[in-house]
Amino acid sequence: MAKLILRKLHWKVLTLSALALFLSAFPTSEVFSQEDDRERLDMMMINLNSSFLLGSKGLFDQKFFSHGYDIALMYDHFLPRSPMSVGIGLGISHMRIYSNAQVEWVDSNETNFHLFNVIPFDSTYKRSAFNLNYLEIPAELRYRSKPDERGHPWKISIGAKVGFKINARQLLVDDQAYRFTSTRFPNTARVRGTATFRVGYGKFSIYGAYQFTPLFHEGQGTELYPLSIGMCLSLF
Hints:
By secondary structure, this protein is mostly beta strands. It has one helix at residues 2-24; strands at residues 44-54, 67-78, 84-99, 101-107, 112-118, 125-144, 154-174, 179-182, 191-201, 204-211, 225-234. The longest helix has 23 residues, at 2-24.
């Protein structure tokens, strides 16, 4: 797992470099005093996302209405004489993937693993959803401009969060509308790492999150990486 995380972290260096170039485009004449009277923002955020599993192409088809949400409480800590701040806090996330596949447990002599197998056309199962819930510790490096004449700032942030699995659950619905659930998915990652990005104005932002650790433990399931893109609402 450690080697996998290190392999995935190299792209973060490129992202941070791009962030530095972006921030250099903003005026630097706005100097913030050491006695900072700025308002703390983005302390409670709700993200509504479209969710995808990268790596599924050619294996199974995902439905366009797959979705998720995140709720986070974060403390906004100002950096002195700077338009930057650091946010850290606690949150929860939910992801629901609809597809034409069923997550099945394969038991072999060497190992046990999970596979997304396409549901046969003549199967009684007509709908499939795979749900994941995590408790998370998010952290962000934030830039925020001075408020404009409307009192709203432009803002951009890059961050990461560590998630701890609460549960994983599969729902299958048959042609008689009977529902079948399963929660036996021990190979789903108990701890995950996710990179995040937000850019917006005022209380609204475009939000993206990429899980750079696989959905299942390495070698114990289909290699898939969750991606979420959506809107963020900052309540305060």
